[in-house]
């Protein structure tokens, strides 16, 4: 209300100042009030009679001449009036009264006039000239034309100015008049210090007629933005505002406050563009990622709530990336990098969305969207006030790592293999490094490392192909390959790779202890590899040192498992080791195929003992669906035979490998896996093994050689525990090995390796390794690690890493089995139910898509003891 009133008053004032004319008075009489000071007053009369111009308070005349007198000729002359300031016209204003001649008798006589005349004389010098005698020097301007007679009227006369001084003269020729006042003035367009257009209008003498353009200036702190500033001053002393050409605006940081420039209030800013001061925009609202993939992301947001006045809002995009620890120099100052592209652009965006392209995979990017308007830059420059922004962070999608670039050097004797990887695309876990000798593929070596270089045992003069691929949390990337031929030098010493810094003093000590551990299966396989197909010897002289055949026979007598040796027809050798072999045979009474285990003639006493122990244990067991069934035995004479159920797919390890199309020469299976295995198959294998082991554990039997190679596969993908050759019944809770035995180091827990202690808990450890074998579909555990190095590694806490394609959940079951403390490990019943639960779930625990079996490399290198 109050504001409106103020505005109204202001508008009124403005109107008045703009429309009011101003006159500069050159002469005003009487002056002061009621005193006419033309000094001396100069009435000039031809007759000199008293009826000419007479000064009382005013000048008056009433020379009503009679007929006999000549016509009156009365002059009243002014003082010399100086015209200054270049006025082009002056305005003579008189107040007077003339009486009606008709109101006099005889109508005032022959000469009576209802008017008088106005004359002027101009000169460059101040001079006095009597009109009576110098009438020719005077110019008649006009005669009065009163609007009414007998009353006081005002009349104006314009006199064009030609010289500097002017004399006025009133010529009365018979009127009866009173001259009340006289004013001589001229028009000026007035000084106007402030009008809304920020123009300062100086007082300007008005033109004689029409109007004239006047060059004007901007008020203080304003400047002429465009055009030549000019404005018309009209002859009547009025500025014609509508003729203003050009414009003025306030300097930066100020605004037009009713015609003058004032500093912006605090918190507001102004650019020098003639607008009002304004605030900077608030932050953009609701910044969102609407799309993200490995290399691009798209952002969208809403305009800020506060935008500022008389402006549009535009946006700058700032991009930072989170430097992850191992990014060294790739990530300087967290800048996004100059490769990143912004569509449509990075700065001064006038749309509410942007696409960032050419980003790195699996990197956390933080984007800030700054809202700006016309004053943002100024605010920053003046007060350091930064634009408000909305922020969002997003991780670009990851993928498998890129291909490493491989370098091979042989600076001296050693060959150094190194590599670089540009696109990690995720969290890098490790590198798989393989060297393949071109002329002998069996000399393939593989190692896993987190380092960026490796060394191999290589042979001089040979050509090797090195393959390196990286594994990150999304899986394994393509392999970088480099072929290299070693120099043909006699003594090329290649140091074996050091994996995880595992070789230490401790490992060396352990090595001496474990070096005797020879794993019989490995040997068996090595034999096959050499192409030695063992001969089938049905009877041969076997040396059983210190073994009482009597006691053996004793057992046999009581044996309900005794079979008739003659009813067994051997068909073929399924497998053969150093000291024993397995045949496929037919047992006539059952009319079925069976597996027959026997010892070779070079077998030692210990082998026979193991065999008999296995037999004894199996006799105590009732048949279990997941343990190989004992059919019978013939131990009354040489060679002793154990007859077992026959499983046509052979051992699980070979089965798994074959399922991937890899020929496993050790596999005894006659049938081949029908199709590739599913995740469910693998989980089901793990479950069946746990179930079989669960049974053995309740029977207090410690297997001591649980490994995929010792599981047999039957029809319908049934797994059964077999090879109880190393198994022992438990007397107390712990079986302590008293003699040196051939033990599978990579499947053994630390307590067995170091102290020879075996419990069900050590079977649990082995079960963890079997799970690893199963879910890697037959890879060899601890690739490239020698058996004698295992104990040292385990002591340092090393455990096999999670294969990329299996879930953390599944992996944690394995690592539970690998707890250092035996009592911290789970039990077989628990394992059964845990795996059962996974089986019943719909989740993916094993991602066989990620697992590319064709890239599989057989890591199965026999230990060089
Ligand atoms: C003067 O007076 C006469 C008679 O009274 C009248 O007729 C005439 O109109 C008057 N003249 C003026 C100009 O008033
Ligand atoms: C304007 O004044 C000039 C002289 O200054 C004169 O010649 C001209 O006739 C005047 N025009 C009008 C319309 O009065
Ligand atoms: C105003 O100024 C511009 C250039 O400064 C000029 O071209 C234009 O004729 C002017 N207009 C008037 C009415 O004086
Ligand atoms: C002011 O100037 C404009 C444009 O020259 C003109 O049309 C208008 O009549 C002028 N106003 C006055 C009061 O003379
Ligand atoms: C600029 O500010 C003045 C008062 O300071 C106000 O009257 C005027 O409407 C404002 N102009 C705009 C475009 O907001
Ligand atoms: C990227 O990852 C997110 C979340 O992980 C997912 O929703 C999105 O579909 C992925 N984008 C593409 C293109 O794969
Ligand atoms: C990511 O999305 C962008 C934009 O849609 C596309 O140009 C680019 O090829 C995509 N990149 C990948 C790796 O999918
Ligand atoms: C994307 O980045 C690569 C390097 O990382 C660069 O060579 C390429 O020119 C970039 N692409 C564009 C379109 O800028």
From TrEMBL:
- The residues forming the signal peptide are 1-21
* Domain called Fibronectin type-III: residue spans: 283-399, 400-491
User: Listed GO cellular component terms?
Assistant: plasma membrane; receptor complex
Name one molecular function that GO assigns to this entry: ATP binding
Tell me, which GO biological process terms does this entry list?
A: cell surface receptor protein tyrosine kinase signaling pathway
Q: What is its EC number?
A: 2.7.10.1
Domain of life per record = Eukaryota
Query: Mind listing the UniProt keywords for this protein, alphabetically?
Result: ATP-binding, Glycoprotein, Kinase, Membrane, Nucleotide-binding, Receptor, Repeat, Signal, Transferase, Transmembrane, Transmembrane helix, Tyrosine-protein kinase
The residues that cross the membrane are 498-519
> Which reaction equation describes what this protein catalyses?
L-tyrosyl-[protein] + ATP = O-phospho-L-tyrosyl-[protein] + ADP + H(+)
Q: Which SUPFAM superfamilies match?
A: Fibronectin type III, Galactose-binding domain-like, Protein kinase-like (PK-like)
The record, for InterPro entries, names: Ephrin_rcpt_lig-bd_dom, FN3_dom, FN3_sf, Galactose-bd-like_sf, Ig-like_fold, Kinase-like_dom_sf, Prot_kinase_dom, Protein_kinase_ATP_BS
Where along this sequence does the record place binding of ATP?
597
Q: Where is this gene product found? A: Membrane
Protein name according to UniProt: receptor protein-tyrosine kinase
Q: Which Pfam families match?
A: Ephrin_lbd, fn3, PK_Tyr_Ser-Thr
Domain Protein kinase, residue spans: 568-857
What lineage does the source organism belong to? Eukaryota, Metazoa, Cnidaria, Anthozoa, Hexacorallia
Q: Which residues form the Eph LBD domain?
A: 13-194
* Membrane-protein topology: Single-pass type I membrane protein
